[in-house]
Specification:
single chain, 427 residues, mainly alpha, globular
Length: 427
Amino acid sequence: MFLSLLKNFLSLVGAEAFTKLITFAAFAYLARLLGAASFGYIEWSAAVLMCASLIVDQGFSSYGAREIAKNPSETGRLTAEVVTARFLMAAIGYLAITLFAFWFVGDETIRRLLLIYGLSLWALPLLLQWVFQGHDRMNLVALTQIIRQTIFVGIVFAFVKSANDLLLVGVAETVAVATAAIFSVWLYRRYLTPQTPFWRPMFSSKLFREGAPIGLSQMFWTVKMFGATLILGLVATAEDTGYFAGAMRILIALHTFVWLYHFNLLPSLSRAWVAGREKFAGIIGNSMRIVLPAGIAVGVVWVLLAPFVMRTVYGQDFSSGGGALQWMAGACVAAAISGHFRFGLIAAGFQSLEMLTSAIGAVVAAVLIPVGYFQAGTSGAAAALCVAEIVVLLVSWLIAKRVLFGLDTNILPTEGQHFEGLPEATR
């Protein structure tokens, strides 16, 4: 199992590193070509689209992956239910974008860009990476992501030549998502269920009941991470907001790899929960043996290099953001540890409790970030974000200890302790 998990994780990390590199290159090209104002339109439209995409998903993907991991024979039914639900939510999401564009956006170019970007919502239901995740086919997840981002980057470099081509960026995103969706459907038919109809509309109230808490948890995470800059912008100077936002962009980029690790672990946890708590605790315990020392080592290196990274990435003017980035190391390490408990709760069907931990973290961040800023500037605001992640870690651990492992169960690895779920050679 360990080798399988490692292989899947490396597939995801490799794809994510490649796609982030080429996408960064594309956006750097756009920034230089279009100028600050037009580039701001693109970033703003992309942020709106990200919020709308959360409406489309609503946690259905994580729910579907968990259930498929437990019972692969239900793949066809679960796919039909999730795709149906996501098409319904895509209609709601695009309606929300349309109303927002016509009621609150005065500039015609921005409105058109937003509406073009929004068309990609209609292809999102057919992105089936969550199905591949449930079957532990992370290579297919990675391949779909590579197809999507390569198409986007290729269109940007091939066709966007001046500020007059601004709308083509939205076209590139829509074409990329649609192409990836078609490709993922083909992969689904070829490798998973070639003998069953791909999709018949099927509605499930259970899907909404169990998926909605996961979706709300994702929204709370978005409020905490992306909302941190918004909250700080309400109380800080423009310069301090820029320093903090620069550090946050690095945190979010690196946090992606933390999320991928737990994304890869979720199917194994789901199956282990069905097999019994001993095996479930064993997988988490063995993972902790890897993540704890690795997280501490990465955190130390992060703190040491943070000022240098800020200067190198953003220039000497952003040196003041080095302290903020150092505090964010703690937030990332805490998230890497708490992910075991949070994804464990999702795997075991306690997604409402996992949502509670995310909600508490969002509230703590919203309250403490302004306080931290007034006390110690951007470093204080970042320290507040770190505290919020530590609170999430403590709350999720306490809940998991009671719900998943029993009050007297200690899942943290100790000397001589043995775990089920991984080969003897890895113990």
